[in-house]
UniProtKB/TrEMBL annotation, chain A:
Sections of the chain in a coiled coil: none
Protein name: Cation transporter
Pfam annotation, one family: Cation_efflux
Domain of life: Bacteria
Amino acid sequence: MNSSPGTHLPEEQKRLMRRAAKLEWISVGYAACTITVVALVVGNSQAMRTAWVEDMLSVLPQLAFLIALRWTRKPRKPRQPYGYHRSMGAGHLVAGVALLVVGAMLAYESITALVKTEHPTIGTVNLFGHTIWQGWPMIAVMTVIVIPALILGRLKIKVAKPLHNKLLYADSKMAKADWQTNAASIVGVAGIGLGIWWLDAVAALVISLGILKDGWDSTRSATSDLLDSRASDLDGTDPHPLVSRIEEQLARMNWVEESAVRARELGQVQHIEVFVVPHSGQVGVKQVAEACAELEELDWPAYDVVMIPVSSIPDYLSEAPARV
Amino acid sequence: MRVKTRTLQKLLPGMAVLPLLAGCGAQIPVDPEGTLEDVRSGTISVGVSPNADFVEVSNGPLQGSEIQIIQNFAENLDAEVEWTVGGEEQLVEALENGDLDLVAGGISSKTPWAEQVGMTRPYTTHVDVDGKESKIVMLVPPGENAFLFEVERFLDRTQMP
């Protein structure tokens, strides 16, 4: 049984989890650096300001992950019979909603700037006695800071997939898409430089739509998990492969006449309920316990398997089987 | 959604390269409304509001440190100065509408007008009677970045110690 205290994870997953936490700490530290550097050059460009806020927002899923990680390690107890795994989902939802709200605010700001035909003013800086247009250092900063963010994103996605951690996955997808934000802000500043005043607001709008999309995806996926949707893959479209493996395993058990699986995700692990109709309507306690242990052995996300002997499969499961 | 993101991914680098290509040879930044072009070898419309030693309005010609700076700046651009004396609010409105090219009058860098129009970097400081120090700026039309560049470069060259 997997009720031991700690992360309950197998050695390999524990290692990945430690790596994920390390990557997220590095990400938070790096974000702190970029936020400071961009603050020095941000100026009057709407696109730059939007990209700057996006940098600040990118910390949210990372912090949510690091905080949730402390919680998921707690063992379950009578008051908390399912453990604390759901804290990942709660963090995911909070980060998603924050992205949605701020994304909407930024989109509104850039649309207002377009409607009012606001011409952004960018002056100069005096560098060692030379008067230099401020747009140049802006473009330089936005070009340089994107590279480490891209590398971190790629490293994180490699960890998120085997861990089946949706929060980490959403975060790494955001980091991977970060270069688009930087590219858009460079387009905006270059537009101002060329006297195309509206290009800045349009670039800002593109960035804020990206933030909105991230927010929408995260909110939808987190809400769907909190509503105990069928366990699914990382993108939330196909059923989780573990469900069909359990069904196959059940089909191999001699005493099982008919069965159906109800699996929900508790963060990166699953709570699985199996409804079984035994042959001749009889089953022993020992058979049930053995079957549960067997199913939990299948894979580490099968964290908590409960078997319920029934006379017939519940309608809502047989009408829409988990395997589509 | 996926298709859109891919299009965006292809579009963005293209968008980034285009302005850079177009920028080769041309001077950056450019004025959307062409203020610098119009002023050079033409007329520069300057609004001033009376303020201490910066802008002194009395019978006879305008005087003060900023009047002198602006006259030198205009000479530098081979331009004639057309002066307008008025209150700050009225001048800022004219600046926004494109009727003026430059506004001065001992304006501090904390001016609320910076929301509506462009502002130069502070080029000097001023200590008032209470001993409070403020940084002095001039105002330019919003988004006329080539003109702002020219003004700031002139201030850097002539006003910096």
